[in-house]
Design brief:
The chain is an alpha+beta fold and 165 residues long. The chain has six helices and seven strands. The chain starts with a strand and ends with a helix.
């Protein structure tokens, strides 16, 4: 199976502008007056955090390969084995993402549920009918047990197998 990668999406790139605006505001506040050392240190920490968030937004991705799903987000890197996938679907994004792109589009993102948690990678945020994200959903479903239909054996079948075996 080839590796399918979703990256360089429009919405994460637009979201990366928000930390850049915070950096601009922090720099402007620092140049207007002579703030105390604590304020300068706080501004430096804010600039560092905003730069990290913007960098991670610009390099976020979802990759579906033969070994599993690799997700790189803002504050996490995850590798999910196909056996751990309980559900995968495209769902509306959270309220914060919707508010940040309000009026531009109705954002949806990939939702991968495992036994422990649900990941909604920012790299997959797009419109509801995005073909690349749908390819990822179909590839995950094909490689995991999400599409498998549970089978039930009737008592007569198990008795027949025991008698034959």
């Amino acid at each position: 199976m080839d590796r399918i990668v979703v990256e360089h999406r429009t919405v994460p790139r637009v979201l990366a502008v928000v930390p850049a605006l915070l950096v601009a505001v922090a720099v402007r506040v620092l140049t207007l007056a002579h703030p105390p050392l604590a304020a300068r240190a706080l501004a430096a920490a804010g600039v560092t955090l905003a730069a990290w968030i913007a960098y991670r937004l610009l390099t976020a991705h979802v990759a579906v390969g033969p070994d599993g799903i690799t997700v790189r987000g803002v504050f996490y890197d995850a590798t999910i084995d196909y056996a751990d996938v309980r559900a995968v679907d495209v769902q509306p994004s959270g309220p914060l993402t919707r508010a940040l792109v309000w009026g531009v589009l109705e954002p949806h993102s990939l939702s991968v549920s495992t036994a422990g948690r649900t990941l909604r990678p920012v790299a997959s945020v797009s419109v509801a009918d995005d073909e690349d994200v749908q390819r990822v959903v179909n590839a995950i479903r094909a490689r995991s047990s999400v599409w498998r239909v549970p089978t039930q054996r009737l008592d007569s079948e198990s008795e027949l197998d025991a008698a034959v075996g």
